[in-house]
Design brief:
With 477 residues, this protein is an alpha/beta fold. It has 15 helices and 19 strands. It has helices at 55-71, 78-94, 96-107, 111-132, 160-173, 188-199, 214-222, 235-245, 270-282, 299-313, 334-349, 381-384, 400-408, 423-432, 465-470, and strands at 23-25, 28-30, 34-39, 46-52, 146-147, 150-154, 177-181, 207-209, 228-232, 251-255, 261-264, 294-298, 353-355, 371-374, 391-397, 415-419, 437-440, 459-460, 473-474. The strands form 5 sheets. Strands 13-14-15-12-11-16-17 form a 7-stranded mixed beta sheet, sandwiched between helices. It has a 6-stranded mixed beta sheet with strand order 8-7-6-9-10-18, sandwiched between helices. Helix 2 (78-94) packs antiparallel against helix 4 and helix 4 packs parallel to helix 5. The longest helix has 22 residues, at 111-132. The radius of gyration is 22 Å and the shape is globular. It binds 1,4-dihydronicotinamide adenine dinucleotide (NAI) and magnesium ion. Residues 38-39, 106, 185-186 line the site of magnesium ion (MG). 1,4-dihydronicotinamide adenine dinucleotide binds at residues 154-158, 181, 183-184, 213-214, 217-218, 221, 232-234, 237, 240-241, 256-257, 289, 336, 339, 386, 388.
């Protein structure tokens, strides 16, 4: 006998979405000139009109950030800066439900994740960095390290407010001021964060938010008043940014794509491993740069594990992101859905076997069923390219050495996972893997104290922890 889940929708009445938004510059909302719609990807409902920032908006924002840097922010002690960060962190906690609902509406991710993962981690990042603000001289980064000045920050749509926190919290803690651009499909929580800055009475111009598209991002990158760039997004745009700043004194951290290997040895506890695989690839609809998107199984357990995985996948609830029972929400945009569909079709054409559980997908909005491909070889596009969706590619191996070779056979190097009962095997494997983050017997665990970043085409530099602070500081005089 199976029990059906009754609908358990979270109310959206807590959020107040305006019909139109401007930019947040010098502590005030200023109207934009051109606008574009932001929609709820689960329903295609238009939520609001967002301003498309141009060169003059970016100029004003950079000027405000420069002024705030010289007049107020760089004059404050670390202890005083820390107070603002603590205040922001507490307001974020107080307004957590509002942020969770708004993020779910604008992004399509399940409320279970925004409520239990995104927003608590956002607050944790501000608390963590608040604690550092008055201790930078003791962080092992040299005697009285100094901020760069104005940081230009460009973020993606997969974890909108969390990526803002990863960027804004360390920048402010280290004494930099900020011009941030959210992604075009998910600007609403950044604009609500602007209200939090006002509520916390953060000095005007310390945080500026200019909304817009790639051209707005490029205007920030190329602005001569920007001293440091922090970018998270596609490897393509990351390379463009690297080219744009070559030969300038601008510093940059780039968090780019990934094709994370999740290696399962034949002594792994299979039921727990299945949970980790599901979390590794179906968390946030697979819109995760460090997703475990290549499952690399030891041959002896491959069939049994795939059977268990299919049973588990049949239990994934796909649907209304605001429903508290939902596991897999909507794909963030039509463009992203088309990209996932195109790569899945390439998987079929190249001879891999596709499987998805039976599930009903709504006709409105953008949806993709949880999917696995077995019989994948290293030459297949679905083994090489980032799909950034709920699609898992399964490969197999015989010897531990072969597992490592397959795992490292990628232009990326952001994350990896190892599943085994044997500690020595885990230590051996983690040392061979060319990836910035390696999880053992778990996956997709995040913490502000832990540095995050990639090898090879997955990016430059680290965010989080002490290493993340270093990116916002230069040697003191
Ligand atoms: P994208 O890299 O184009 O967008 C990320 C951010 O960069 C957005 O705010 C965008 O407006 C901005 N941007 C775009 N062009 C720019 C430029 N020339 N200069 C400065 N900023 C610019 O990513 P997109 O198109 O949304 O997604 C495409 C693919 O990228 C995805 O399918 C996925 O594979 C990957 N991706 C990876 C992410 C990650 O976390 N590693 C996040 C988002 C996308
Ligand atoms: Mg949206």
């Amino acid at each position: 006998m199976t029990f059906e889940y009754a609908p358990a929708p979270e109310s959206r009445s807590i959020v107040d979405i305006k019909a139109k938004y401007g930019h947040f510059i010098d502590g005030k909302f200023v109207p934009g000139k051109k606008h574009f719609a932001t929609i709820n990807p689960a329903t295609e409902e238009v939520l609001s009109q967002i301003s498309l920032g141009g060169q003059s908006d970016v100029d004003k924002a950079v000027l405000a950030a420069q002024k705030a840097y010289t007049k107020s922010w760089s004059k404050l002690s670390g202890k005083e800066r820390g107070k603002y960060l603590y205040r922001i962190a507490r307001i974020l906690q107080e307004r957590a439900r509002e942020f969770a609902v708004l993020e779910t509406l604008d992004n399509g991710k399940p409320i279970r994740e925004t409520r239990d993962i995104d927003i608590p981690l956002v607050a944790a990042h501000f608390f963590y960095h608040a604690g550092w603000a008055d201790k930078l001289d003791y962080a092992g980064l040299g005697k009285s390290p100094q901020p760069h000045g104005v940081a230009g920050q460009i973020i993606p749509w997969n974890f909108p407010l969390l990526m803002l926190a990863w960027k804004v919290a360390p920048a402010l803690a280290t004494g930099n001021t900020v011009v941030l651009k959210p992604a075009e499909t998910t600007s609403l929580t950044a604009l609500l964060f602007a209200e939090v800055c006002q509520q916390a009475e953060l000095p005007d111009g310390v945080v500026n938010i200019v909304t817009g598209d790639g051209s707005t991002g490029a205007a920030i990158v190329n602005h001569p008043g920007i001293h440091k760039i922090a970018f998270t997004g596609s490897t393509d745009v990351g390379k463009r940014i690297a080219r744009a700043i070559a030969g300038t004194s601008k510093k940059a951290t780039l968090e780019l794509g990934g094709k994370g290997a999740n290696i399962v040895f034949d002594d792994a506890p299979l039921d727990e491993t299945v949970e980790g695989i599901v979390n590794g690839i179906f968390f946030n609809q697979g819109h995760v740069c460090c997703a475990g998107s290549r499952l690399i199984l030891q041959e002896g357990i491959a069939d049994e594990l795939i059977e268990k995985l299919k049973v588990r996948m049949a239990k994934i609830r796909v649907g209304d992101p605001l429903d508290k029972n939902t596991d897999l929400g909507a794909i963030n945009s039509k463009e992203q859905l088309l990209k996932i569909q195109e790569l899945a079709i390439a998987g079929d054409a190249e001879g891999a076997q596709r499987w998805s559980p039976a599930c009903t997908l709504s006709a409105k909005g953008f949806w993709f069923a949880p999917t696995i491909f077995t019989g994948v070889t290293q030459a297949h596009r679905i083994a090489r390219e980032e799909i950034f969706g709920p699609v898992l590619s399964v490969l197999t191996f015989r010897t531990p050495q072969e597992a490592i070779e397959k795992a490292n056979n990628t232009p990326f190097g952001l994350s990896a996972g190892v599943w085994s009962e044997k500690g020595s095997r885990i230590l051996w494997a983690t040392q061979q893997l060319r990836a910035g983050v390696v999880w053992a017997n778990t996956f997709n665990k995040f913490d502000p104290t832990s540095p995050f970043g990639g090898y090879k085409e997955s990016g430059w530099g680290r965010e989080g922890g002490k290493h993340g602070l270093a990116a916002y500081l230069k040697e003191g005089k």
